[in-house]
């Protein structure tokens, strides 16, 4: 049978095209797969971040939050050096997780005069006192707030060797009015009556609140001691009543921080609770109460002199010392018309004058409670606290 030309063409197409596809398609796919593999390899070698100019990378901004003061503040102190670590810091945060501790005091500026972290603040940048002990301060405050820990930032005010070097004209001098005075530890001080120092302190307080500190605690708010007090000159306070100078500073702080949302506290010598004079350093309880949200007398039993209140060695009588001192403070606070909840003592958890046991630490807390107060802070410069003295929560 003869096949028509058209029929032959159809047969060739039906049989020939599949054979051609079968023969050549693997080669085509192989080349395509190879092209895709090459592209994939090149893609894997590209660092997407490295390809973006540094100035175009937008850092994730950590939002700043604040916590209101707990009704009962139960705090421990954490140095800025510890706050900048991972493991040591974690031990203290874990301690707060396990126990009644609900607040932590962290150094903002310590006795060196250095601020422990960097803040984008033109005024402070000009001073040059910031250093990077705590690498990311907002990360730290967020970490503590996430655990509902109240953060108190501590500022050492007039003991400031760094600012003395920067502004020797504001420094406490010897009587020759030229030589800078030093205490027995070799530390220099700013004159308590220097308004430039007051303004600097306020700037630190506001900037620190802006990165998440809930409360600003002012320490070393006094005239210096522990040095040659017969060879001393105050360029801005000479001839003035020390207690009046310090009260002027307290009033200035209060006026400039009111309305900012900042909760304030101040550390005072323990003996201000029982003494009505200024102890030679300008501190008087009656002249302090009106200006701060909280007053923190440092009633460490080891820091009371031998024979105080009839105790040969006060360090060995923790309950009695705290009870007597804070009882007097409570009575004076009531007499002046202030809420006794303003009082929040610093208690001793370090070995000085005696080896402090869990029972001795707890005895101080009990004494605080027995005079009607329920807030306190534990101090240990080494940041190692007696957990067995604390209630488990």
Word description of this protein:
By secondary structure, this protein is an alpha/beta fold. It contains 10 helices and 8 strands. Strands 6-5-4-3-2-1-8-7 form an 8-stranded parallel β-sheet. The longest helix is centred in the first third of the chain and has 40 residues, at 5-44. It is globular and about 55 Å long. 38% of the residues are buried.
CATH architecture of the largest domain: Alpha-Beta Barrel
Total E-strand runs: 8
Order of helices and strands: HEHHEHHEHHEHEEHEHE
The chain-level structural class is: alpha/beta
| Overall morphology | globular
The CATH homologous superfamily name of the largest domain equals Glycosidases
Strand share of the residues?
5-15%
Indicate the CATH class of the largest domain: Alpha Beta
Low-pLDDT residue spans: 1-46
- How large, in whole angstroms, is the Cα Rg? 33 Å
Stated plainly, the CATH topology of the largest domain is called TIM Barrel
Alpha carbon gap, first and last residue: 103 Å
Helix content: 25-40%
Number of continuous helical runs: 10
Describe this protein with a few key phrases.
eight-stranded parallel beta sheet; alpha/beta; TIM Barrel; 393 residues
List the helices and strands and how they pair.
Elements lengths: L4 H40 L29 E5 L1 H4 L3 H12 L4 E7 L12 H6 L9 H10 L3 E7 L4 H6 L28 H15 L5 E5 L22 H16 L5 E7 L24 E5 L19 H18 L10 E3 L9 H13 L5 E4 L14
Parallel strand pairs: 1-2, 1-8, 2-3, 3-4, 4-5, 5-6, 7-8
């Amino acid at each position: 049978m003869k096949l028509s030309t058209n029929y032959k063409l159809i047969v060739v197409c039906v049989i020939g095209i599949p054979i051609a596809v079968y023969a050549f398609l693997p080669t085509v796919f192989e080349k395509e797969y190879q092209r895709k593999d090459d592209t994939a390899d090149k893609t894997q070698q590209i660092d997407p971040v490295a390809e973006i100019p540094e100035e175009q990378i937008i850092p994730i901004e950590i939002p700043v939050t604040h916590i209101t003061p707990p009704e009962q503040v139960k705090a421990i102190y954490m140095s800025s050096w510890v706050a900048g670590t991972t493991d040591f810091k974690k031990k203290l945060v874990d301690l707060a997780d396990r126990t009644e501790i609900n607040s932590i005091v962290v150094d903002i500026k310590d006795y060196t005069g250095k601020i422990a972290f960097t803040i984008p603040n033109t005024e402070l940048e000009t001073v040059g006192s910031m250093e990077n002990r705590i690498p990311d301060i907002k990360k730290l405050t967020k970490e503590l707030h996430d655990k509902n820990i109240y953060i108190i930032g501590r500022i050492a005010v007039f003991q400031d060797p760094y600012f003395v070097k920067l502004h020797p004209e504001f420094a406490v001098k010897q009587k020759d009015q030229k030589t800078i005075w030093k205490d027995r530890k070799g530390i220099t001080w700013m004159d308590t009556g220097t308004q430039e120092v007051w303004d600097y302190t306020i700037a630190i307080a506001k900037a620190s609140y802006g990165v998440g500190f809930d409360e600003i605690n002012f320490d070393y708010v006094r005239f210096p001691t522990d040095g040659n007090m017969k060879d001393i000159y105050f360029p801005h306070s000479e001839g003035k009543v020390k207690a009046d100078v310090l009260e002027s500073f307290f009033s200035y702080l209060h006026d400039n921080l009111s309305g900012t949302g900042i909760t304030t506290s101040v550390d005072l010598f323990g003996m201000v609770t029982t003494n009505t004079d200024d102890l030679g350093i300008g501190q008087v309880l009656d002249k302090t109460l009106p200006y701060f949200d909280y007053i923190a007398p440092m009633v460490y039993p080891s820091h009371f002199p031998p024979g105080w209140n009839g105790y040969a060695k006060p360090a060995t009588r923790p309950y009695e010392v705290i009870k007597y001192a804070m009882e007097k403070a409570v009575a004076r606070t009531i007499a002046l018309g202030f809420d006794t909840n303003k009082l929040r003592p610093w208690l001793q958890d370090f070995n000085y004058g005696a080896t402090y046991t869990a029972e001795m630490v707890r005895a101080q807390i009990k004494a605080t409670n027995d005079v009607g107060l329920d807030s306190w802070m534990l101090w240990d410069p080494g940041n190692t606290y007696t957990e067995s003295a604390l209630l488990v929560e």
